Amino acid sequence: MTAELASIVDFIRYAASRFAAAGLTFGHSHDNAIDEAAHLVLATLHLPPDLPPAYGQGRLTAAERERVLALIERRIAERTPVAYLVGEAWFAGLKFKSDPRALVPRSPIAELIESGFTPWLDGRRVERALDLCTGSGCIGIAMAERNPDWRVDLADVSEEALALARENIAFQHVGDRVRALRSDLFAALAGERYDLIVSNPPYVTEQEYAAMPPEYGHEPRLGLTAGDDGLDIALRILDEAADHLTEDGLLIVEVGESERALVELLPEVPFVWIEFKVGPMGVFALERRDLVEHAKAIRAAARARRR
């Protein structure tokens, strides 16, 4: 059957059909079989994702056919995310190296980066920014790439993730403005202050993790789970962030489906839930002054689960 396949478009169509028939889960940068298939085929052929349509009729060599077909079969049999199979993912318009040392780059925060964080940073001066729980480094590196005058720190507790982040720093040529630091949240950042702290921390509940499709089992669990309500890490960030923000500093954190639990736990805190093009995505913005004003309630909630 595959002998009839010849062009790039043929292989994308074939892969999409196979993926849909196999009932694969799409949640790592793509939400459908066609985009996932295009990522696999084009990356394997070392072609850009915005390849002009005229090139779609280009024919694959025998060696290229073999490589593409092998990865299609692995995607189905192993349920490995495409980004890990081809070693790359796109985030905020940039290509990043991707492998099982860190989660596949994905977050609605990419939309904020591409829009310049408007209106949240309108009128603010940002000199230093922190990407907390950085994983592959995609958020912090994309911030630095979009804002050449920012100095950005990437922090993560996982040395494996930081090794990948450092590779991405070199890959994007931002080593003069971006550094990667090993830190359990703010533990190794004593004395450091930032105008902007952005974090996509673990926020999957234990119940949710147990029910996740096999694709997510290829990612480090450390980067996904955060207790029974998904808030173990987010509450620690809220408790400690004020000490690392400048006077007019801003905190932006993604908590996904744990948004409801956070609002119920801290109803008095004035979280601003950001609206994206597709709607709300569980990302809040909070001023340093609000963190200070509600520090007592935040600290009580954070410490209650450490007992």
Automatic annotation (TrEMBL):
InterPro entries: DNA_methylase_N6_adenine_CS (IPR002052), HemK-like (IPR004556), Ribosome_uL3_MTase (IPR017127), SAM-dependent_MTases_sf (IPR029063), Small_mtfrase_dom (IPR007848). One of its GO terms (biological process) is methylation. It is an enzyme of class 2 (transferase). GO terms for cellular component: cytosol; ribosome. Pfam families: MTS. Residues 124-208 form the Methyltransferase small domain. One of its GO terms (molecular function) is protein-glutamine N-methyltransferase activity. Its EC number is 2.1.1.298. Keywords: Methyltransferase, Ribonucleoprotein, Ribosomal protein, S-adenosyl-L-methionine, Transferase. It catalyses: L-glutaminyl-[ribosomal protein uL3] + S-adenosyl-L-methionine = N(5)-methyl-L-glutaminyl-[ribosomal protein uL3] + S-adenosyl-L-homocysteine + H(+). HAMAP family: L3_methyltr_PrmB (MF_02125). Methylates ribosomal protein uL3 on a specific glutamine residue. Belongs to the protein N5-glutamine methyltransferase family. PrmB subfamily. This is Ribosomal protein uL3 glutamine methyltransferase. It comes from Mizugakiibacter sediminis.
